[in-house]
Amino acid sequence: MPRTKPPRLNRRFRRPRRLLAKHEISLVVLLALVPVFLTLTLSFLWTVRHIEHQMAFLADATARRSEKILKVTETNLRQLAEHTSARCDLNALAFMREKVFSVLYIREMGIINDNRLTCNDIQRFTPPVLITDRESSKISESDGEITIVPPVATLQGGKSMLVNYRVDARNYVNALIDPDLFQEFHEYVRLGEVSSVFLVRGDGKAVISFGTMSEGDLPPLMESIPHQLQHRGKLFSVYKSGAFPLYAVVASSPAFILRQWRDQSLPLGFSGLFISVALIALLKSNRRRRSLLQGELWQALENDELVLHYQPVIDMHSQRCVGAETLVRWQHPEQGLLMPLIFLPAAEQTGVIRALTHWVVRRVEWELGAFLKNNPDIYVSINLSPSDLGCDGHKVGFEDLVIDLVPNGQIVYEVTEQSLIPDHVTSANDIMQSLRRRGAKVALDDFGTGYSSLSYLHRFPVDYLKIDKAFVDGIEDEAESASLVDHIIGIGHSLQFQLIAEGIEHLYQMRYLLKSGVQFGQGFFFSRPLAVDEFLVFVRERNKEVM
Ligand code: C2E
Ligand code: MG
Ligand code: MG
User: Fold this and answer.
1) Which of 249, 282, 347, 375 has the lowest CB atom count within 10 Å?
2) Strands 106-113, 171-177: parallel, antiparallel or unpaired by DSSP?
3) How far apart are CA 175 and CA 109, in angstroms?
4) How far is the CA of 361 from the centre of ligand 2 (A)?
5) Could you tell me the distance, in angstroms and rounded to a whole number, from the CA of residue 11 to the centre of ligand 1?
6) What is residue 453's predicted lDDT score, i.e. its pLDDT?
7) pLDDT tens digits along 358-414
């Protein structure tokens, strides 16, 4: 190693003041909002579904309950009509009294002739009482059918629902029904299960209505109305009675739906918030780790904690050492010697890599410059990452990669297949071309493990293909064919590249490769990566032995 002081990191490569990317702030905002937004949306959809379900159930229950009450009433009114032919006599009074006494739903019965109440279950009226309210005297257009009338004031006080049964065009009998019988529909509203419940006659008149909506809010009711529908922003569930011209309608207003959503989704909203907080905490700890690592990497560069090892490359024909691959390590103050795969990914992600490569180039120049000048048959290779070739979108030049002290023919730049993917290829290609114009060589590292498409490989300014260790591992015997590595070697030959096999660990692997026409090799079989002094001794000894 030279006695002069090692070069410092160039001032142009400075630790950025802000270590964290700006886009991370928007990521935090996104992480905070997305789970809350998702849980609220899902809970809203769930609330609407739940309400629709509830409404369908209640509309069906309302229709059934009303039919049951009306069927009993209709049967008793028919009997009254048949028994009395709508004529008031003692027999009719006795019949009505018996019905009022025995039928739970009926409060009062009466006989109406020519729109005048002639008698009810209590008395005969002399003169008969003229019915002035038009709604109360409404009867069906056909004999033997009932008409339901919304609650009206009765002679006894209070309000009752009326059911009129037409005997003929001039006479009808009626029954007063206690509206409390329908009180349970009111419970649906009171308990907050729906916002309104209606019982609607075929002509659209609401005979029962509970809740905040009015008759005017109802949708037009037709024979073929769907069970579930939306009308003017409100949700309706409609069940048509099979026995009477009657619809049971339950409804939910937007305000009601929002209230339900608010009440039910609050816990869900909290869980969304909880997920957001957890995600942000995770992101923050990740950011902290990254920022610590990034800070540490800069510190490693500034404090000269990185070291270079050189792994000899052997010409397998002559068995001479023809060069070395430069491999970086981090002499971590606490964790000891760290291998590049532990810290390089972070260096690549955080952009420290360009400063690191620059450091490697300067350090190679300092450590091996003089040696290489005196040994023109030895080369050194330097690994470049995609960012060094501008593949991360930064504008970079080739000047930072050049070693002035060393003749360019003795430098090989190793690029990976990632640098050649079409998105980045222009920038990478320009830099590789510039380096080659100066006499340097380019090797495609880890060949066969990445993206390289044969169809465009020949277009790249590449001199060497480095066959990845994974393929060399496939050679299990000197004599037996290893089809994968054969295939890779075949490609290299057809494109007329020089081949360097990596990761040779056994003699039979070397022999197999040599037999297959691979000239250069690198691997633990020849030597592990060495510190610079060890490497210089290795070259001297090895090349002396094979002279
Ligand atoms: P690579 O460029 O493919 O380097 C070869 C790797 O294989 C080295 O690992 C080397 O120690 C290892 N190796 C060589 N022969 C054998 C063998 O016979 N058996 C086994 N098991 N391994 C062998 P290392 O040093 O851990 O480097 C890993 C990777 O890190 C390198 O792969 C290279 O892509 C990257 N790297 C190393 N130094 C630098 C650098 O200065 N800059 C950049 N950008 N990348 C570097
Ligand atoms: Mg390499
Ligand atoms: Mg490799």
Assistant:
1) 282
2) antiparallel
3) 4
4) 14
5) 28
6) 57
7) 999 999 999 999 999 999 999 999 999 988 988 877 777 788 888 888 888 999 999
Average pLDDT over residues 82-87: 94
Tokens of 395: 């504008």
Q: 226 alpha carbon to ligand 3 midpoint, in Å?
A: 69
Q: Give the pair of three-digit tokens for residue 236.
A: 């309706």
10 three-state secondary structure:
coil
Contacts for 132 with CB less than 8 Å, ≥ 6 apart = none
pTM: predicted TM-score of the whole model, two decimal places: 0.59
Pair of tokens at residue 180: 């409390």
**Residue 391 in contact with residue 351, Cβ under 8 Å?**
no
Please give the pLDDT value at position 454: 60
Burial (CB count <10 Å: 0-12, 13-18, 19+), residue 455: exposed
Residue 184, pLDDT > 80, answer no
Residue partners of 346: CB distance under 8 A and separation at least 6: 290, 293, 294, 297, 352
Contact 308, 365 (CB under 8 A): no
CB of 328 closer than 6 angstroms to any ligand 1 atom: yes
> Across residues 156-178, what is the average pLDDT?
89
450 lines ligand 1 (CB under 6 A): no
> Which residues make up the environment of ion ligand 3, defined by Cβ < 5 Å?
445-446, 502
Ligand 1 center to 159 CA (angstroms): 95
Task: Measure Cα distances from 189 to 35, 193, 201, 213, 364 in Å.
Answer: 33, 6, 21, 11, 84
Task: Please write the tens of the pLDDT for every residue from 446-472.
Answer: 887 765 556 567 777 889 999 999 999
Nearest protein Cα to ligand 1, atom 8: 327
Q: Tell which one of 297, 307, 327 to mutate to probe ligand 1, the residue whose CB is within 8 A of the most ligand atoms.
A: 327
Ligand 1 close to Cβ of residue 383 (< 6 A): yes
pLDDT averaged over every residue in the chain: 87
Tokens of residue 316, six digits: 């397998």
Q: Is the CB of 446 under 6 A from ligand 1?
A: yes
Distance 325 CA to ligand 1 centre (A): 8
**DSSP secondary structure of 88-122:** -SHHHHHHHHHHHHH-TTEEEEEEEETTEEEEESS
Please answer whether residues 505 and 523 qualify as being in contact, where contact means their C-beta atoms are separated by less than 8 angstroms: yes
Nearest-angstrom CA–CA distance, 488 and 494: 10
Token pair for 524: 């633990």
386: tokens are: 């995609």
- Token couple for 192: 């907050």
Confidence of residue 85 (pLDDT cuts 50, 70, 90): very high
3-state secondary structure 51-69: HHHHHHHHHHHHHHHHHHH
Share of the chain above pLDDT 70, in %: 92
